[in-house]
Amino acid sequence: MVGSATLTIEASSTTTNCATQRRISAIQRRSWAAILSVTGFLAFRGRAVYNPEPEVRFRIVTESEFRFKLSVTMTTAIPVPAREERSDARRNRKRVIKAARDCMARDGLDAQMEEIARRAKVGVGTVYRHFKTKDDLVEALAAERFERLRELALEALEQEDPWESFAGFMRASARIQTDDRALSEVLTSRPETMGRAAEAAGILDLVGEILGRAQAAGVVRDDAHPYDVPMFMCALAGTCRNPHADPERYTGIILDGLRAPGGGLTELPPVAAE
Q1: For 8, which of 35, 64, 150, 171 is 20 to 30 Å away at the CA?
Q2: What is this structure's pTM?
Q3: What sign does the dihedral 123-128-133-138 (CA atoms) show?
Q4: Does the domain at residues 87-132 carry the CATH identifier 1.10.10.60?
């Protein structure tokens, strides 16, 4: 129905006879049914119920107004389940991350996205589809590394000897830091990135558990704090560019500094420059 019309029917029992009253009532009923069937939407000036009294007022809306109000009324937030990533997309993502790890271990943050794509055997577009920028790729790489550290921490907690558990975790963590140049650069230049990845993996709580068990056994000094461990790792990461750097030697010195008094000393490897 196009256009706008207002239909007003007024009747008074004092001015109409019974026949007129019945005709008015019939017109009201027919008008009610016709409007419901044609427009499907009524804007009433009262309650939205049929009133059999002699006076009824209602308004017929235009087609455009009806469509607008219907669209507004029916617009609801319907949750749409997130579509699962396809298996081939997941595989490509893993290949890109692995390639990025290899390239950045060699070239650091100077690694190019094109080279990462070639190493992953995917198109450059695939790399950018998963990671819009190199920063996004570094975030993913950091997250993967801390998941690996988390796995090492869980393995350390399964060891019975508190000192071997602590020392083994420290050495394994140091190897990860120094073998991956990209992670080393991120540690020293992007602490906020590493902080987010560490928090997501819950690594500090696990380190606190490993350290606390060693302290309770009396093999690690009581004043050592879980925050000391990531600081040591950052210090080791900063030595990766030095040709004379020896992570095993520096890790041994750090462990000796963390031992409880009277716990003995680590046998250090010779200096690489000698």
Answers
A1: 64
A2: 0.61
A3: negative
A4: yes
